[in-house]
């Protein structure tokens, strides 16, 4: 049997622990099948860590995250901690985790399940079968560049400044993630920038092209200006496989792409860091949604975003393609059979609780694996 996989589990606040419970049960099932053995280390993050440990993320938890093969996070935050100073808020725990782990590549898939096609704002024929991945550079670019600030001008006006800066290495490492992902998908990468009006875009295009020629010629590479990419995402999103782009354009394009698929309760994400000498990348997997205080503790949360984040973990951190497929196929199956939580239910649909939805997915996994 393969060596144990070290997984750090951080359920967090609000619906975080509820949706994480369904993943923990799934892990128990996988362990029971002896498909693989996970060593689970569970710790606090966010508001629950503030209450118990005095800070949203303890040094000990950071250390565990650095040593784990992958980290799964539920969600953080809630009204109880809203009035704390900015530096002490639950969300700081998440930001610190991303920073300390140097997670520079954010992966957001946009998959349209046929059974939920009516939840998309686009026509069924445009989104049917949609499966794209947006890779956003997460630690550089205009959100971090200097100079920045707001200054007074001699004529009495004020001036706001932000600076888009990218180095060769920052571009190459995120492009490498995109090329490697594409090799596990349809082997197509579209790199997006504004090389027509920005020098940083010119450099981005040059470096991506250079890296492609050096290492990834087996992957098809195209380039697209970011404004055109925004338009093409709603015109014909299926033309894309993997899109790689900078922090600013990625922020916008990944939100746009996520709307193609419907509910927040369906959207997983991954954030990856640099590979070490053994090829292992630091990695954090989490749903896109927050702690949803309005439905927390009521068994109403949709666990699919968390479950699909775990599937990404199996695929990208552990190379367990078969098990990742099993999880994703089980989700497709139960949606096809009409299983719905409140957020994705139509008029007249029977609404399942978080636990019932988790159980339905695990049952489908058992059936598909039989
Ligand atoms: P949210 O994502 O928590 O909720 C937005 C809406 O979507 C709510 O109506 C909620 O009920 C619904 N929703 C979200 N996830 C759902 C799910 N799995 N199933 C069914 N419905 C779901 O965003 P918000 O309300 O703006 O923020 C609430 C708290 O979460 C805040 O404290 C915020 O700072 C925090 N937050 C955390 C993260 C994170 O941990 N990554 C991300 C966003 C917001």
Describe the structure.
This protein is α/β, with parallel strands linked by helices. It folds into two domains: 219 residues, Isopropylmalate Dehydrogenase (3-Layer(aba) Sandwich); 130 residues, 3-Layer(aba) Sandwich (Isopropylmalate Dehydrogenase), CATH 3.40.718. The chain is 40% helix and 19% strand. The strands form two sheets. A ten-stranded mixed beta sheet has the order 2-1-3-12-11-4-5-10-8-9, sandwiched between helices. Strands 6-7 form a two-stranded antiparallel sheet. Strand 1, helix 1 and strand 2 form a beta-alpha-beta unit. Helix 1 runs parallel beside helix 12, helix 10 runs antiparallel to helix 11 and helix 11 packs across helix 12. The mean pLDDT is 94. Bound molecules: nicotinamide-adenine-dinucleotide. Nicotinamide-adenine-dinucleotide binds next to helix 4.
Spatial order of the strands forming the largest sheet? 2-1-3-12-11-4-5-10-8-9
Task: Tell me which ligands are bound.
Answer: nicotinamide-adenine-dinucleotide
Mean pLDDT: 94
Per DSSP E runs of 2 or more residues, the count of β-strands stands at 12
Coarse structural class = alpha/beta
Quaternary structure of the protein: single chain
Radius of gyration: 21 Å
What profile does the largest beta sheet have? 10 strands, mixed
Please indicate the count of domains: 2
Helix content: 40-55%
CATH topology of the largest domain: Isopropylmalate Dehydrogenase
Supply the CATH superfamily name of the largest domain: Isopropylmalate Dehydrogenase
Distance between the first and last residues' Cα:
20 Å
Which term fits the overall shape?
globular
Tally of separate helices: 12
Assess the beta-strand content as a share of residues: 15-25%
């Amino acid at each position: 049997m393969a060596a144990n996989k070290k997984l750090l589990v951080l359920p967090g606040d609000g619906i975080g622990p509820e949706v994480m419970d369904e993943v923990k049960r799934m892990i128990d099932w996988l362990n029971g099948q002896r498909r693989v053995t996970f060593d689970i280390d569970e710790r606090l993050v966010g508001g629950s860590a503030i209450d118990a440990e005095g800070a949203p993320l303890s040094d000990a938890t950071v250390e565990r995250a650095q040593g784990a093969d992958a980290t799964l996070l539920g969600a953080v935050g809630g009204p109880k901690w809203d009035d704390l100073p900015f530096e002490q808020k639950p969300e700081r725990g998440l930001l610190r985790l991303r920073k300390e782990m140097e997670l520079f590549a954010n992966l957001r898939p946009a998959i349209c399940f046929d059974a939920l096609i009516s939840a998309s704002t686009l026509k069924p024929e445009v989104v049917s079968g949609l499966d794209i991945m947006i890779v956003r550079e997460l630690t550089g670019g205009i959100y971090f560049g200097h100079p920045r600030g707001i200054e007074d001008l001699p004529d009495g006006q004020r001036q706001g400044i932000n600076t888009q800066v990218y180095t060769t290495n920052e571009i190459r490492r995120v492009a490498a993630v995109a090329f490697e992902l594409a090799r596990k998908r349809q082997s197509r990468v579209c790199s997006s920038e504004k090389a027509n009006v920005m020098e940083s875009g010119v450099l981005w295009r040059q470096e991506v092209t250079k890296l492609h020629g050096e290492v990834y010629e087996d992957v098809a590479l195209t380039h697209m200006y970011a404004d055109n990419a925004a338009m093409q995402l709603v015109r014909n999103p299926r033309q894309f496989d993997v899109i790689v782009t900078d922090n600013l354009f990625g922020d916008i394009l990944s939100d746009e792409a996520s709307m193609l698929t419907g509910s927040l309760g369906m959207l997983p994400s991954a954030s990856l860091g640099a590979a070490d000498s053994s090829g292992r990348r630091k990695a954090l997997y989490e749903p896109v949604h927050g702690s949803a205080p309005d439905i927390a503790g009521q068994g109403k949360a949709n666990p699919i975003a968390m479950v699909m984040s775990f599937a990404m973990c199996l695929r990208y951190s552990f190379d367990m393609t078969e098990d990742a497929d099993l999880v994703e196929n089980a989700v497709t199956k139960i949606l096809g059979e009409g299983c719905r939580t409140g957020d994705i239910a139509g008029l007249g649909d029977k609404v399942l609780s978080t636990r019932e939805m988790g159980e339905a997915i695990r049952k489908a996994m058992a059936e598909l694996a039989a």
